[in-house]
Hints:
Largest sheet: 5 strands, antiparallel
Number of helices: 2
Distance between the termini: 42 Å
Strand content: 25-35%
Strand order of the largest sheet: 1-2-9-8-7
Radius of gyration: 18 Å
Oligomer: single chain
Amino acid sequence: MKENFVFRSSLHLVTNTPWGERVLFSFDPNSDLVAKPLHVSPFMDMLGNWSIRTNAPGDNLFVAISVQHPKLGDYFTASLTARRVSSLENDHALYFWLMPHKVAVWIYWHALKLWWKNVTFIQHPRYHSAAYKEEALVRDRGLQCCQALAGDAQNCLQVEGSGSDVGSTKSGRDRGFTWRDAKWPWN
């Protein structure tokens, strides 16, 4: 007898390397809209939302994230397609060790090119609003309630208490952000 597996919830961990922050949040992997909880680029403000979709982890993995901005529309998309590699294959050890460094160099190279083109540099929000994390929670709650009103009102997010960084849906599923400091580099 074959058992049907439904992939209903996924955790996503994002680190903004230069600022040493990390955020963990849950989302519906089939398709979800999450308020941007972390300053990941000095060329993007915090008003965007992340549209996220992924498949269930297995031998292959696909993740797609796009930024939806209230004024600029959809202006950034990133995707990852990967396949499982056995950890016993030592010939890939150097490749895997170098990959985070290669990605960091690539990111900084593209940031330098944007800076050179005079793209507006946006400071980390902590320098002008100490409440940027709470503001992300409020934006996310609004997104979830709007999605619930468009679909199932049972999924409207209720944030527990003031200043809470975790909310739960009426159906009991936790939804929110957990912020913490990230160790340097890429730990």
